[in-house]
Amino acid sequence: MALRETTGKRKLFRRAAAVAAATATAAVMAVGTAEAAPARPMDGPWAGCPWGAVCVYPQDQNPAVSPSLVFESYGAHNLNNQYGNHWVLNNQYGGAYARACTGYNGGGSCTDIAPENGLYLNLTPINSIVLVRP
């Protein structure tokens, strides 16, 4: 009886471990890999993105090399015809952050991008990038 109980616990543990591994893998796939992000120099251009700007790179350009969109003024910037995965690099400084929003003009739900950071995002549901001054 004790052997059967131990075997049952092992099966339960294996199933729980498999579910945890699948969940962790799905979470990494949803966010993208940080390893592919270009190296971040301090106080200067980053992967072709000017210091103080927020840049969007062409679909599936990984790592980010040359931006297709460059935003340098605060406020909302509406996107058109941007689908699939793109790097969005926030090369702003001094606490300025960027937001990737599902609605036009910064509406809907938004994902914040901290200063001097980037995210590999699916832009299909994203309709605006907002540059927010500190």
Automatic annotation (TrEMBL):
This is Peptidase inhibitor family I36 protein. The lineage of its organism: Bacteria, Bacillati, Actinomycetota, Actinomycetes, Kitasatosporales. Residues 1-36 form the signal peptide. InterPro entries: TAT_signal. Keywords: Signal.
